[in-house]
């Protein structure tokens, strides 16, 4: 009796490879989200705090209002009106602290200051 390998049709091999690739991408995405949520203690601390919008307004006026107008007459940066509807709190924290969007400077508020700023921005 001959031992012959049974060959799968090419389309089946491609389907299996595609499913495996999708599973890998989804798995890596889930792992990335989990890592981001657990690996950043600054963001975790900020999100665990209750922000004071009044204090956040003061922080905004000192650090942000020079470039971010709340009116239609934009300054250097875009209007932040309704920002909490367009961006997640994590995204806002990352934007404020990273300095990756020139000419926005890197701003390093304390965790409480960042929570206060988020409290203010959520009311815009």
Describe this structure in words.
The protein is an all-alpha fold and 124 residues long. The protein has 2 domains: 7-39; 41-121, Cytochrome c-like domain (Cytochrome Bc1 Complex, Chain D, domain 2, Orthogonal Bundle). Helix content is 60%, strand content 0%. It has helices spanning 10-39, 41-48, 53-63, 83-86, 89-98, 111-121. The longest helix is centred in the N-terminal third of the chain and has 30 residues, at 10-39. The N and C termini lie far apart (78 Å). The relative contact order is 0.15.
User: Which H/E pattern describes the elements?
Assistant: HHHHHH
Average of pLDDT: 84
Total count of helical runs of at least 4 residues:
6
Q: What's the CATH C level of the largest domain?
A: Mainly Alpha
**Low-confidence parts lasting 5 or more residues at pLDDT below 50?**
none
Proportion of β residues? Answer: under 5%
How far apart lie the N and C ends?
78 Å
Total discrete domains? 2
CATH topology of the largest domain: Cytochrome Bc1 Complex, Chain D, domain 2
* CATH architectural designation of the largest domain: Orthogonal Bundle
Q: How large, in whole angstroms, is the Cα Rg?
A: 23 Å
């Amino acid at each position: 009796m001959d031992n012959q390998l049974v060959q799968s049709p090419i389309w089946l091999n491609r389907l299996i490879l595609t499913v495996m690739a999708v599973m890998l991408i989804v798995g890596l995405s889930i792992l990335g989200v989990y890592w981001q949520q657990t690996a950043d203690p600054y963001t975790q601390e900020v999100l665990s705090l209750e922000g004071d919008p009044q204090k956040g307004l003061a922080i905004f006026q000192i650090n942000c209002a020079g470039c971010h107008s709340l009116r239609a007459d934009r300054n250097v940066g875009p209007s932040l009106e309704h920002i909490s509807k367009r961006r997640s709190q994590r995204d806002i924290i990352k934007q404020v602290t990273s300095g990756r969007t020139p000419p926005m400077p890197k701003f390093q508020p304390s965790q409480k200051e960042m929570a206060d700023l988020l409290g203010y921005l959520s009311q815009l």
